[in-house]
Amino acid sequence: MFQVFKKLDWFFKHYWKRYTFAIIALITASGIGLIPPKLVGFTIDHIQFNSLTSLLLTAIILGYLALIIVHYTISFLWDYTLFGGAVILEKWVRSNLMDHFMRMTPTFYGKYRTGDLMARSTNDLKAINLTAGYGVLTLVDSSIFMLMIIIMMGFTISWQLTIAALIPLPIMAVVMNKYGAAIHSRFTEAQAAFGEMNNEVLESIRGVRVIRAFVQEKQDADRFSSMTENVYIKNIEVAKIDALFEPTMKILVGLSYAIGLGYGAFLVFENVMTLGDLVTFNVYLGMLIWPMFAVGELINILQRGNASLDRVNDTLDYAADVKDTKNPQVIQNVDTIKFSQVCFSYPDTEMKQLDDFSLVVKKGQTIGVVGKTGAGKSTLFKLLLRQYAGVTGQIQISDVSLSDISLEQIRSWIGYVPQDQIMFSKTIRENIQFGKSDATDEEIYRVMELAHFLDDIKQLPKGLDTQVGETGITLSGGQKQRVALARAFIKDPEILILDDSMSAVDGKTEARIIDHLRAERKNKTTFIASHRLSAVTHADHIIVLENGKIIEEGTHETLISLGGWYKEQYYAQQLEDGEVKSE
To answer: Cα separation of 86 and 466, whole Å?
Structure first.
């Protein structure tokens, strides 16, 4: 049960001063809280024996007031310090999770779904927060505070009565242990179900246009209803165990009260203790209710926290597939990019996406990459970005192995526009500035001209300040592609990768973008993958991929003269466009 504190010992060791102060202040406040019942008993005895004077009563009242002020001040300090520490823990773990997500490769995101990661970053962190705050409080109150009350009851009143009143405690320990084990397993299942529901909601929102287009609203609503019912059932199972804690505690506390009142009255009649002692004892017994409840709360909180911490640690323990070498080499210029007999297969697949791939790219060259769907075009770029491990052969930049260069430096050189453009829920200006945070409006307008987006920006209601919505939902496919292009252009990278990133724009717009691209990137390396061959005809070198192998390569003119797949595809596309040209 206390394993969760051991798992969090790294945090408690770092903030040991904060938690030491909080616990000492909590114990001090609890100790001060034990004084008033003694004053009540003391006053009752003086009333019983007619020895209470006005001076003594005034002293007792002033003492009460002083205790209230001191108790309030110390209680504020421990509360602020303890629960402030819990908030810091939640912040730390959330930051660690976010850093971890940023370092992870596509393999990680293939294993963990977004909705489940969101659940771990929200609900599970709240449970961990509760453990570091309320869990520590219940631990102190259910152990030290309970022990303090028992000592006061035994030493200052009667050990006979104290032991008799505490007979239900062992029963409580056994029952609470069983409840705790059930809470841990059921809460883990409930959190997993919540993560699955998150996934469904996220996919439904993202795919709402497709759902409507295929008239699947009712089916999606039914599927969501089934998911929520499952979450409901799992949480009800947790609530059933949760609901047993309080009644069980009340029965055991009731037994303690019955024993304390009955046996205590007998001891008063026998003159073993005074009436004031009996009143004080019952006040202490009332104070003991919270520590006894705290035992149940402690088990509940720790089991939930342990389950949530296991889920979070499971995520954080996932080792990145691609890591920086211990002593990365620093390269000043990207002179050449060499692929030497590169072979690669995606995890959990046997088919090679790249097979014995070799290519030399010199600085300033434009490389066209074409081929059928699934030929390996995107895979080639992902390997250049070091998104996957398990590559055989050599990929070198300026004769230095890619694995010996830091990930930060590699990716700082590259401007990447993938097939599926990602727009952030911000303005068009902010989306473009993602490529260069300090970019001025003048620079933004310039790259929008290169991406042929100036006419579009004039039609948008707020120009650069237009909100694009989540994933750029307010923009068309072609507009999203051109904003993504502008974002890459403003970075002015050493290596620009366009992975079929103009598929949603018309041929004339594509031609204008290509013309701008040729003028702007004369001395920098560019890779262009496209199904539309007109996008690569100007390239210095074109490679045709099939099943991860280069089956044709050369300039546009060379490939036309070869009479292979490239020529056949090029003329077929020219016929489709109604622009047959003689070569």
So the answer is: 39
Q: CA–CA separation, 42 vs 280, rounded Å? A: 9
Give the mean pLDDT of the chain. Answer: 87
What 3-state class would DSSP assign to 42? helix
d(CA 152, CA 162): 10
- Which helix (DSSP H) or strand (DSSP E) does residue 7 occupy? helix 3-7
What b-and-e string marks burial along 378-409, b requiring 16 or more CB atoms within 10 Å of the CB?
bbbbbbbbbbbeebebebbbeeeebbebbbee
Token digits for 109?
Answer: 């995101």
Looking at residue 554, what DSSP letter applies? E
- The answer to whether the CB of 339 falls within 8 A of the CB of 550 is no
Taking the CA of residue 344 as centre, how many other CA atoms within 13 Å lie in the half-sphere pointing to its CB?
A: 28
| Domain boundaries, given as residue ranges, for the chain | 3-316, 336-363+372-500+510-525
pTM surpassing 0.85?
A: no
Chain segment 178-233, per-residue pLDDT in tens: 777 788 788 888 888 887 888 788 778 777 778 887 788 888 888 888 888 988 99
What's the chain's Rg over C-alpha atoms? Answer: 36
The CATH code for residues 336-363+372-500+510-525 is 3.40.50.300
pLDDT tens string 366-423 = 999 999 988 889 999 999 999 888 899 999 999 999 999 998 899 889 989 888 778 8
Q: Is 487 left (phi over 0), alpha (psi -120 to 50) or beta?
A: alpha
CA–CA separation, 233 and 189 (whole Å): 10
Does residue 335 have a pLDDT over 80?
yes
State the number of CA atoms in the 13 A half-sphere of 42 facing the CB: 14
- The closest alpha carbon to 524, from 496, 558, 554, belongs to 496
| Dist CA 554 CA 556 (whole Å) | 7
Is the CB of residue 537 less than 8 Å from the CB of residue 370? no
What's the CA gap between 545 and 211, in Å, rounded? Answer: 35
Q: At what angle do helices 146-156 and 275-287 cross, to 10 degrees?
A: 170
pLDDT, tens digit (0-9, with 9 covering 90-100), for 244-282: 877 887 788 788 888 888 898 998 888 888 888 888 898
User: What does the alpha-carbon distance between residue 571 and residue 533 come to, in Å, rounded to a whole number?
Assistant: 10
Rounded to the nearest 10°, the torsion over CA 517, 518, 524, 530 is 70
Q: What is the C-alpha separation between 435 and 101, in angstroms, rounded? A: 20
Tokens in use for 230? 């499952």
CA–CA dist 550, 274 (Å, integer): 100
Pick the CATH number of 3-316 from 3.10.250.10, 3.10.129.10, 1.20.1560.10, 3.40.50.300: 1.20.1560.10
Q: Is the pLDDT of residue 86 over 90?
A: yes
Tens of pLDDT along 523-563? 889 999 988 898 899 899 999 999 999 999 999 999 999 98
Residue with tokens 């046996």: 263
CA dist 550 → 237, 369, 419, 560, 564 (Å):
58, 10, 21, 16, 13
- Please give the Cα distance from 444 to 237 (Å, whole number): 55
Q: Provide φ and ψ at 520, rounded to 5°.
A: -80, -30
